[in-house]
Amino acid sequence: MSVIRDAGLNITAQCGGCAACATCHVYVEDEWTSKLKPVSDVEDAMLDIAEERQENSRLSCQVKLTEDLDGLTVRLAPGSGF
């Protein structure tokens, strides 16, 4: 989430990374979904209120970037922008 925000892209990220909203909702490209940590119960609950949730939906604030995720591709979901 912070990488998206710091790049000046159109993301609200209202709660600042606490998984307390869904304003950093993104779609993770399919080839990357298995490389991410599983969705927590808190993230799952927030995604339930997100617009247009899909199987590859994640809260970008819950995606910890590591070397294994170098090249990760996501698309901003509806409702994540300001």
Task: List the topology elements.
Blueprint lengths: L1 H5 L18 E4 L1 H4 L7 H8 L8 E3 L14 E3 L6
Antiparallel strand pairs: 1-2, 1-3
Short description:
This protein is of the alpha+beta class and 82 residues long.
Walk me through the structure:
The protein is of the alpha+beta class. It has helices at 2-6, 30-33, 41-48, and strands spanning 25-28, 57-59, 74-76. The protein has three helices and three strands, in the order αβααββ. The protein has a three-stranded antiparallel β-sheet.
Secondary structure tally, helices: 3
- The CATH class, by name, is Alpha Beta
Order of helices and strands: HEHHEE
At the fourth CATH level, what is the homologous superfamily?
Beta-grasp domain
Query: What kind of sheet is the major sheet?
Result: 3 strands, antiparallel
Q: Distance between the terminal alpha carbons, to the nearest Å?
A: 14 Å
Give me the Rg, rounded.
Answer: 11 Å
Total E-strand runs: 3
List keywords for this structure.
3 helices, three-stranded antiparallel β-sheet, 82 residues, alpha+beta
